[in-house]
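hey so u asked for the seq, here:
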Amino acid sequence: MGIPTRGQIFKGSVDRVRDTVARPSLDTFYEVQFSFGKYQTWLGREPGLRRTQSAKFNEKMSLLCTQAEIPGTSFIESSVTGNHQGITELFPNLRNFPPLNLSFYVDADHMILEVLETWMTYINPIANDRGRDNAYAVFNYPEDYKERIYVTKFERDTFIKESRAASYQSEMSSYEFINVWPIDLTSMRVAYGDSNVLRCNVRLAYDRFQTSFNYPDVQRR
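ran it, structure tokens below
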């Protein structure tokens, strides 16, 4: 295909593309699932059902996750000069995965804070820490604390069997983050004055992510 000609420029009426442009994705329909398969190692005992309102603690975390991210990615490139006379070419070298940022509403039972802080404390616990000056830090093995997180994107009509406005339903797309661990739990400001819902933000590193696009049912592993 060469340079577009006049005949290749769309000049039709809006009615011809109405079904296409009228179906944007909305950023308020998503869910984050925390597949904590090793929590008994780094968390220990689950928080009590009174603190989680009779739900599992990772389900409560999913409901209180008020902001998530669909990940981006980039290549670290290398330049080569001389393969073609007078031309410098760029080639992909390594693929870079930026951190995953999540925001939570902090519950009145402070369970969210306990889970995240305990997770980070397990990664780098303080040994001999009983108010002594000779305490020291150690690191646990990554196999014991790296987890998996899923971010699933769906739409308003995904779970409606017969959508009234479209001839088909929107399916789901999921991102599976592999070997996730927290690298930064930001500070939370508290102050007198007007009350606001307390939020905590956590930044997570991971090795890579995998994608599943346009599938009808939630894929659980």
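The chain has a mean pLDDT of 89. The radius of gyration is 24 Å.
lmk if thats what u needed
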